[in-house]
């Protein structure tokens, strides 16, 4: 009896994403009901609590809330509640807790305490019967279905789409910019096979990776660094394009691999000048996104053009494929990253 092929679970879950998106769009009415409650309560600002990949989804939501709703938004430090016992006044505040498992004790405690302090609490999770869902006032199911691989793929992208549909509905939108995402996701997966394979060939023996993006795509860059670290054990760091130029670029040289994420829009335009500096230092650059071909890079992995605010939902797909391919090429099994479990419990 032979062992199962390395990465077969994560590969299947990456390929499942167009169907997951279609399922989420079909259930948009339930998300809109949650959004109507938020709109009626008229929060004065929003807070987001999350860990791991969900923290990157929360970063994406922060941009959505600040740009589309024009509300100030911030990322919570759970330890201020769980370790230090802080009890801020959260009256008229929206707290969105993002967790695919809904099982991390710190996120459950933060949500429970926030609700007691007056916040409107919303759990965004792939586990509707979780402890997190039990303590939150409202819940959004990301509809991704069971995820076997330890590294999150379909739960991450489904969470992005669920957050977009929620925020868009709060502002009275119809989700029109998301309607084509199932088809665009399938197109992205099909068209990215060859350029991803080329990127894997170039980066098989790299040791250091820097990922970068601006605006909405900064969440994709952060998720890319995590995926490369947890599946290929690379030293991977993520910086916004602006922060990269404020010091860390000094460490970039011809031994550095750089993954740049850029969609059409303000964020992608701002990334172009960053890549000019990075390229001049001899780094090997792989560019991903609908604006990838406008950037100076060794490999361009394009995705279909969309409204900028939904681009992260599909631009992360070739990034997931890159993480899978590199892990297998380097002799690892991305389904079973060493030292990691599917549900991480922290306090």
UniProtKB/TrEMBL annotation:
Gene Ontology MF term list: carbohydrate derivative binding; glutamine-fructose-6-phosphate transaminase (isomerizing) activity
PROSITE patterns: SIS
Organism per entry: Actinoalloteichus hoggarensis
EC numbers on record: 2.6.1.16
InterPro entries reported for this sequence: GlmS/AgaS_SIS, GlmS/FrlB_SIS, SIS_dom, SIS_dom_sf
Protein's gene: glmS1
One GO BP: carbohydrate derivative metabolic process
UniProt xrefs under Gene3D superfamilies: Glucose-6-phosphate isomerase like protein, domain 1
Protein name per its UniProtKB record: Glutamine--fructose-6-phosphate aminotransferase [isomerizing]
Keywords for this protein: Aminotransferase, Transferase
Pfam families linked to this entry: SIS (PF01380)
